[in-house]
């Protein structure tokens, strides 16, 4: 077999393949022999028809069958021999089969781009500084207070105020037209928790059970629901119940009720440590995104269309799944949930290609000893027997741990070679990077 590889673009190649006539003829003769042994042809007993008759009856189907098999085998052989990183099924030209001549055809393949040299030295990235403000600890303490509050009806009854729990019914009309789909009965709300429309909340402040109040709300032009944009809604609200939250005192007894703590100071220390761990992870995630930004700025990474389409489809599926998990269905789905998805999908694919190329450039591998050590860590962390951990990482999950270890090695090298500096307040004020950078996952090496 002869194969000529022609690069059409950084992500597309064309194979011009010739299969010798001897191979074609041999495969066809083999197939005719198989058919002759079983063929049922009128006028002959099964398996007794002359080879020439078998050729006349089955000639076209044998040619088509053998040609298809040879084309597939030749393509796979060429891909393996030339080590082509194919990302999609080949697009085949019409094979040309003539008796006594080579079988000639072309195949167009979508491939990963060649990223032969990934330069890391000289790149710069800023790491967000982890600084846990006392106000954050205070807010978490207040959250614990609310979670441990006792709830009861005021005696005597008093007007509603911030922090109270109300049970309400409400009816909604939009520009004078009733909207039954927006009405609610027996809805529990907390005044001041930020979940109520501010106009409705203000109308409820000072109300007592049995009161009816109303509030006008004008929705913004960019509201998530298209049918509400710029419209004015009238909420007619009835207060059914009012209960107050009695917060516990912030003392050592409160700390003991919140867990294995002897003092309030120990509780605050634990909350700070958890916040520092959380923010350190977030800082590291943002740093990785900034390193990827620096890599992408320094290297041109063509994206194969199929990889982009598949990544886009995955991200759309993830977005819908997340929205459904948050209770959003149908028309309540955020209207802009897919905004910018093409750019984000392209970035993910580019990151994956870059990290994969960098891994190959560095010759990164995982040893059996490293795999055994990671399995042991998982077993200790989960309380499972190591044999069960191994069994769980077979089949479709066979490469998960190895990919995880390779990725850790990639980032260890990048952290050691990229010039990383702590982000200053001046950097933040300049608006270099937003706080939600970490929301976009790094691409895994392929």
In short:
The protein has helices at 21-38, 51-81, 134-147, 198-204, 252-257, 264-298, 305-325, 341-362, 368-382, 386-392, 400-417, 425-429, and strands at 2-9, 12-19, 91-92, 103-110, 124-127, 150-152, 165-174, 177-178, 184-190, 212-218, 232-246, 419-422.
Which SSEs are present, and which pair or pack?
Elements: E1 2-9, E2 12-19, H1 21-38, H2 51-81, E3 91-92, E4 103-110, E5 124-127, H3 134-147, E6 150-152, E7 165-174, E8 177-178, E9 184-190, H4 198-204, E10 212-218, E11 232-246, H5 252-257, H6 264-298, H7 305-325, H8 341-362, H9 368-382, H10 386-392, H11 400-417, E12 419-422, H12 425-429
Parallel strand pairs: 5-12
Antiparallel strand pairs: 1-2, 2-4, 3-4, 6-11, 7-8, 7-9, 7-11, 10-11
In words, what does this structure look like?
The chain is an alpha+beta fold and 446 residues long. It has three domains: 2-110, Trigger factor ribosome-binding domain (Alpha-Beta Plaits, 2-Layer Sandwich), CATH 3.30.70; 150-246, Chitinase A, domain 3 (Roll), CATH 3.10.50; 262-439, Trigger factor, domain 2 (Orthogonal Bundle), CATH 1.10.3120. Helix content is 45%, strand content 17%. It has helices spanning 21-38, 51-81, 134-147, 198-204, 252-257, 264-298, 305-325, 341-362, 368-382, 386-392, 400-417, 425-429, and strands spanning 2-9, 12-19, 91-92, 103-110, 124-127, 150-152, 165-174, 177-178, 184-190, 212-218, 232-246, 419-422. Strand 7 and strand 8 (177-178) form a beta hairpin. The mean pLDDT is 89.
Helix/strand order? EEHHEEEHEEEEHEEHHHHHHHEH
Structural domain tally: 3
Number of helices: 12
Mean pLDDT figure: 89
Residue runs with pLDDT of under 50 for 5 or more positions = none
Helix content, binned percent: 40-55%
**CATH class categorisation of the largest domain:** Mainly Alpha
Give me the count of strands: 12
Proportion in β-strands = 15-25%
CATH architect. name of the largest domain? Orthogonal Bundle
What is the CATH T-level topology of the largest domain?
Answer: Trigger factor, domain 2
| Biggest sheet record | 6 strands, antiparallel
Q: Write down the overall geometry.
A: elongated
- The secondary-structure class comes to alpha+beta
Terminal CA distance? 30 Å
In angstroms, what is the radius of gyration? 34 Å
